[in-house]
Design brief:
The protein has about 220 residues and is mainly alpha-helical. About 90% of the residues lie in helices and about 0% in strands. Helix 1 runs parallel beside helix 3, helix 3 runs antiparallel to helix 4 and helix 4 crosses helix 5.
Length: about 220
C-alpha cells in the first residue's frame, strides 16, 4: 500500500510539472510574440520616417536640379544678350569713326538709327533678366548707359570707347561666372543658397578676375545691398 501511495505521489508530481510547463510555455510564447511585434512595429515606424525623410530630401534635390537646369538656360540667354549688346556698340562705334572720316550720308544715318534702336531693346532685355538688387547688375546697368551715350557721340575716340567696353565686359563675365558657380553649389548641396552666400560668390569671382576693378565696385555698389 505504501509503495502504491508513493507511486501516486510521484505521478501527481509529474502531472503538476507537465501542467506548469503547459501554462508557462504558452505564456513565454505570447511574451516573445508581443516583444517581437513591438520591436517590429518600432522598426517599421523608423523605416517609414526614414523613407519619408529620404523622399523629402530627394524631392528637394529634384526641385534644385530642375531650377538649376532653368538657370543654365537663363545664363545662356543672358550671355547671348551680352554678346549682342557688345556687338551693337562696336558697330555704332565703327559707324562713328566712318562719320568722322567721311561725313554723314543717308546710308550711315539709317544704320545708326537701326543699331541705336536695337541697342536700346537689348539693354531693356538685359535689365529685365538681371536682378537689379545685386551689385554687379547695378554696376553693369550704369556702365551700359555710359556706353550707349558714348557710342551716340561721334566725337568718342576708339581708346575711350575701349576703356568703357573693358569695364562692361568685366561686369558681364563676373555675372556669368558667379551664376555658374551658384548653379554648381546649389546642385552639390541640394538646396538653394541665400542672398548672403550669393554676395560672397560675387566677391570671390570679382577678386579672381580683376582685384582692382572689383575693389572700386565693392566700395560703391556692395554697400547698397
Amino acid at each position: 500500500m505504501f509503495q502504491i501511495y508513493i507511486s501516486r505521489l510521484m505521478i501527481d508530481s509529474e502531472v503538476k510539472k507537465l501542467n506548469l510547463v503547459d501554462v508557462i510555455t504558452p505564456g513565454i510564447g505570447l511574451i516573445t510574440i508581443y516583444f517581437s511585434w513591438k520591436s517590429s512595429n518600432k522598426s517599421n515606424k523608423t523605416n517609414l520616417k526614414l523613407g519619408e525623410l529620404q523622399d523629402s530630401t530627394a524631392g528637394k534635390h529634384r526641385i534644385v536640379e530642375n531650377i538649376g537646369a532653368q538657370r543654365i538656360v537663363w545664363i545662356n540667354n543672358v550671355r547671348e544678350l551680352f554678346v549682342e549688346f557688345n556687338s551693337l556698340c562696336a558697330e555704332l562705334q565703327i559707324n562713328n569713326e566712318l562719320v568722322l572720316l567721311n561725313g554723314v550720308d543717308e546710308n550711315k544715318e539709317g544704320k545708326l538709327i537701326s543699331y541705336s534702336q536695337q541697342l536700346l531693346k537689348v539693354m531693356n532685355n538685359i535689365e529685365l533678366y538681371l536682378n537689379p538688387n545685386e551689385p554687379y547688375s547695378q554696376f553693369l546697368f550704369d556702365r551700359m548707359k555710359e556706353m550707349r551715350e558714348k557710342v551716340h557721340d561721334v566725337n568718342t575716340v576708339y581708346h575711350m570707347f575701349n576703356l568703357h567696353r573693358e569695364m562692361v565686359v568685366f561686369a558681364q563675365n563676373v555675372i556669368l561666372k558667379a551664376e555658374w558657380r551658384r548653379v554648381k553649389k546649389e546642385t552639390d548641396k541640394g538646396e538653394f543658397i541665400d542672398k548672403k552666400d550669393m554676395l560672397k560668390i560675387f566677391n570671390e569671382v570679382g577678386k579672381e578676375m580683376n582685384p582692382g576693378a572689383h575693389e572700386s565696385i565693392l566700395e560703391k555698389y556692395f554697400k547698397k545691398t
